[in-house]
Write a structure and sequence with these properties.
Strand order of the largest sheet: 5-6-7-4-3-8-9-12-13
Number of helices: 23
Structural class: alpha/beta
Number of strands: 18
Helix content: 40-55%
Radius of gyration: 36 Å
CATH class of the largest domain: Alpha Beta
Oligomer: single chain
Strand content: 5-15%
CATH superfamily of the largest domain: Glycogen Phosphorylase B
Length: 699
C-alpha cells in the first residue's frame, strides 16, 4: 500500500499552485476518462449544475463555479477509488493467468507422458514383449498378481482410445471411474491385457454394463454392415439397430467375413490381429486371422480365412455356386472365435440363411462350451432366398446330415431330398423376427413365406413381426442442416419455406397453390412407363409439379426412365438423373406428396422419412403402375408403423391431390398426427427386440 500511496500523493503536491491560500491544497490530478454517458459525467461532482448548448454538433457543458477545495477533494477521492479498483483487477487477472499457465503446463506434461508411454507400448509390441493383438508366450505374460501394473495399463489404454477417437470423453470418464472403483473384480477380469483396442473396449463395456447390472451383451453375426460391407438392406438394418441398442445401454459387437474388396487398413480405428484361431471345416482345422475396430461406435470383428482365402477374395459378396460352403465356414468360425476368446454373450443375433446354420451348430456343439446362458434370435429379411442344398454338405462344418435331414428339422418342405438352411434357422432359434413395417404375422405366414408356411405355423409362438426404422440423427426436419429452415410437428411453418426453396432450385414458375410431388429412386427393377406416364399426366392436369431424383445402373431401367423423360416434356416436370444426398433432403421436405415405389422399403425407408418430414407417402397402386405390388385386401399389422402406413397405403395420387385441395383441415391434421410419431430405430423396432431378448433370457 505504500507504493500506492506514493503514486496518489506525490511529495511536491503544491509546487505548481500559487500561494493564494494559507492552507496547502493537494495537486489536482489530470482528467480521467470513464465510460459514462454525458448525463453521468455532468453529475459526477455533487453540487454542480450544468446547462447544455450545441456548437459544431457537440454538446458543451457549462459547469457553475464551486469551491476549488471541494472540487479537488472530490476528484481525488474518485480517482483513488478508480485506481484502486483497476489495481485489484490487474492483480486478479495476473493470478488467473498464472493459474491457467500452470494448468496448461500440467496438461502438456501429461500429454507428453501419455504419448511417450504409447510409443513405449508400440515399441514393446514390435519387439514382442507386449502385444495387444498377438499371442504372447507365457513366459512374457505379466503375472496376475501385478495389480498396479494392470490398473495403470488399463487407464493408459483408455487414454489411447480417446486419442484415437474410438470412444468419447464421457465414456472414457465412466470407464476410468469403473477401473478406480472396482479394482478387486477388475484384477481377475483383466489379468490378460493382450488384446487390441477393439477387443479390450468390448470387454470394458461388458464389464461396465455388468457392474451396473444393466444392459445385455449382444453379438450380431451377419454378412453386411454399413458402411464397410453394404449390398442391400441388411447393412443398413444391422448398423441402425446396433446403434439404437447401444444407446439404450447394451453392449453390441458385430462379426462379419473379411471380404477382399474391403480395404480395412484405410478405415480409421481398425487393426489387423496377428493371433490365429482355428475353425473346423471339411474334416480339418483351418487357421483364421482377425481384424478388429470400431465402426459408428460398434465393436466389429472381421474373420479372414488363411488357407481358404479364396472364399472371400472375390469381387462381390453373394451369387456364387459355393455360397453354402463360404457362409457355413464363416458361421462355424464365428462360433469358434467366440469360444476361444472366452466371451459369454447374452444373445446371438443372426440374419438370413447365410448364418442360419449357427442354430444347429450352437445347440449341437457350442452350448456346453461356456455358452449355457446364451440365447439365439434369427431375423428374416425376406423368404425369397432360403439356400436349399444336398444334405451331405452339412458335414463340411461338422454337422450330422442324417440327424438333421428330417421333416421337423432341416428337410426342405418341397424337395424332401434336400435340406433348407433358412428353415433350420427357424427351427433352432429361440425367437424368429420377420422384418415388415406393414403386414401382420398371419399375412406373412400365409402369403409371403415361399414354402415355409407349415414350419412357421408350427413355430408360430416364437415368431414376431418387427418394423424397420430409419436414422433420425440424419433425417429430422427440426435439425436437418440440408434445409434452409428447420421445422417440426409443433412448429410446421418452415415447410412452406422449404417448398419455395425447392421450386427455386428447380426453376419452377412460382405457383404457390400447386401441389409439389417428389419421387426418389435408386435401383428400380421394373417400371411400367405407360402406366406411370398416365398417373403423372393426370396429376399435371390438376396443377401438380413433379421432381424425379435418382439414377439406375441397370440399362433396361435407365432406358425406361429416359423414355419417360422424353414423353413428359412439361414445364412442371423436372428430372435429375443423379442421386444427390443434400437435394434428397430438400425434395422430401419441400414436397407435399412423395411418390414411393413401395411401402415395403427396407433400404431407403422413404415412406417413414416422408412421414417424419410432414410429407404424405403415396404408392402407385397396381391399377396405375407395376412399381408397387400390394396385394388386394392385405392384412395390416398391429405395430405403430403399420397403423400409420395403413392410413396412406391405399390412397392413390389423384385422391391425395383432391384431399389436399378440398379438405385442407383434414389433410393438415393427418400430416401433423403422423409427423409427431417416432418411427426411428430407437423407437418401436429397438423396443420390440429388447422385449424379445429379455423374454429369451427368462426361458
Amino acid at each position: 500500500m505504500e507504493a500506492l500511496a506514493t503514486v496518489a500523493h506525490p511529495a511536491s503536491s503544491t509546487r505548481f499552485f500559487p500561494n493564494t491560500d494559507t492552507v496547502k491544497r493537494p495537486l489536482k490530478s489530470p482528467a480521467v476518462c470513464c465510460s459514462r454517458n454525458s448525463e453521468d459525467a455532468n453529475n459526477f461532482l455533487p453540487g454542480s449544475s450544468h446547462t447544455k448548448s450545441k456548437g459544431n454538433g457537440i454538446d458543451a457543458v457549462q459547469t457553475s463555479m464551486v469551491s476549488p477545495d471541494i472540487e479537488l477533494g472530490v476528484n481525488h477521492n474518485d480517482i483513488w477509488l478508480l485506481f484502486n479498483e483497476a489495481q485489484q483487477n490487474i492483480l486478479y487477472l495476473n493470478k488467473q493467468r498464472l493459474m491457467a499457465m500452470e494448468k496448461l503446463n500440467k496438461i502438456q506434461k501429461e500429454k507428453e507422458l501419455l504419448l511417450s508411454r504409447i510409443k513405449q507400448l508400440e515399441s514393446e509390441k514390435m519387439s514382442g514383449t507386449l502385444d495387444g493383438t498377438t499371442t504372447v508366450p507365457k513366459e512374457k505374460t505379466k503375472p496376475k498378481g501385478d495389480k498396479p501394473v494392470i490398473f495403470g495399463e488399463l487407464l493408459l489404454r483408455i487414454d489411447s482410445m480417446v486419442l484415437s477417437g474410438a470412444i468419447s470423453h464421457g465414456e472414457a470418464s465412466d470407464l476410468r471411474s469403473m477401473v478406480m472403483e472396482d479394482k478387486a473384480m477388475l484384477a481377475d477380469a483383466f489379468h490378460d491385457l493382450h488384446k487390441n483396442d477393439g477387443e479390450l473396449l468390448v470387454c470394458l463395456r461388458r464389464f461396465y454394463d455388468q457392474s451396473r447390472r444393466t444392459g445385455l451383451h449382444i453379438v450380431q453375426i451377419c454378412t453386411e454392415l454399413e458402411p464397410v460391407a453394404s449390398v442391400g438392406s441388411l447393412a443398413t438394418y444391422v448398423t441402425g439397430l446396433s446403434r439404437a441398442l447401444q444407446r439404450k445401454g447394451n453392449t453390441v459387437e458385430v462379426i462379419l467375413p473379411k471380404y477382399a474388396i474391403l480395404n480395412l487398413e484405410q478405415v480409421h480405428g481398425f487393426r489387423k490381429a496377428e493371433a490365429e484361431f482355428h475353425s473346423y471345416f471339411s474334416g480339418q482345422w483351418h487357421p483364421n486371422r482377425i481384424w478388429t475396430g470400431i465402426v459408428h461406435g460398434i465393436a466389429v470383428t472381421f474373420i479372414e480365412p488363411i488357407h481358404l482365402a479364396a472364399f472371400f477374395s472375390r469381387e462381390g459378396i453373394y451369387g456364387y455356386s459355393d455360397d453354402l460352403e463360404r457362409f457355413t465356414y464363416f458361421s462355424r468360425a464365428a462360433l469358434d472365435y467366440i469360444v476361444k476368446s472366452k466371451k459369454k454373450p447374452d444373445i446371438f443375433h443372426i440374419h438370413g440363411w447365410q448364418t442360419s446354420v449357427i442354430g444347429p451348430l450352437f445347440w449341437d456343439f457350442f452350448v456346453n462350451q461356456g455358452l449355457e446362458t446364451t440365447r439365439l434370435l434369427l431375423t428374416c429379411h425376406g423368404f425369397d432366398s432360403q439356400c436349399v442344398e444336398r444334405p451331405e454338405k452339412l458335414a463340411l462344418c461338422g454337422l450330422d446330415p442324417p440327424q438333421l435331414h428330417r421333416s421337423d428339422r432341416l428337410q426342405d418342405n418341397s424337395g424332401n431330398h434336400l435340406v433348407n438352411l433358412l428353415k433350420g434357422g427357424v427351427v433352432y432359434s429361440n425367437k424368429v423376427a420377420i422384418v415388415s413395417s406393414l403386414h401382420s404375422k398371419d399375412a406373412v405366414i400365409e402369403s409371403m413365406s415361399y414354402g415355409l408356411e407349415t414350419t412357421l405355423a408350427i413355430h408360430r409362438e416364437k415368431v414376431l413381426v418387427i418394423p424397420y426404422g430409419f436414422d433420425d440423427t440424419k433425417w429430422d426436419p427440426s435439425k436437418d442442416n440440408f434445409l434452409p429452415v428447420n421445422y417440426s410437428s409443433e412448429d410446421p411453418k418452415g415447410k412452406a419455406t422449404c417448398r419455395t426453396a425447392l421450386r427455386q432450385r428447380l426453376r419452377f414458375v412460382d405457383q404457390t397453390s400447386a401441389a409439389m410431388v417428389g419421387c426418389i429412386y435408386t435401383e428400380v427393377s421394373e417400371i411400367d412407363v405407360e402406366n406411370l406416364k398416365a398417373v403423372v399426366c393426370l396429376a399435371l392436369g390438376k396443377g401438380a409439379q413433379f421432381i424425379f431424383l435418382g439414377s439406375s445402373t441397370t440399362p433396361e431401367v435407365e432406358a425406361a426412365l429416359e423414355s419417360l423423360r422424353k414423353e413428359l416434356k412439361d414445364q412442371n416436370v423436372r428430372f435429375i438423373n443423379k442421386y444427390n444426398e443434400a437435394l434428397s433432403h430438400l425434395v422430401i421436405a419441400g414436397s407435399d406428396i412423395l411418390l414411393c415405389a413401395s411401402f415395403h422399403d427396407p433400404k431407403l425407408h422413404l415412406p417413414l422419412k416422408a412421414i417424419k418430414y410432414g410429407t404424405i407417402p403415396v404408392a402407385v397402386n397396381p391399377n396405375e403402375s407395376r412399381l408397387v405390388r400390394h396385394a388386394e385386401g392385405q392384412e395390416f399389422g398391429s405395430t405403430k408403423s403399420s397403423r400409420i402406413l395403413s392410413m396412406f397405403a391405399n390412397v392413390s395420387l389423384s385422391q391425395a391431390l383432391d384431399d389436399m385441395k378440398y379438405d385442407g383441415i383434414g389433410w393438415s391434421k393427418k400430416i401433423k398426427d403422423a409427423m409427431s410419431e417416432d418411427l426411428s430405430w430407437d423407437s418401436e423396432c429397438c423396443d420390440m427386440y429388447m422385449d424379445a431378448y429379455m423374454s429369451m433370457k427368462n426361458l
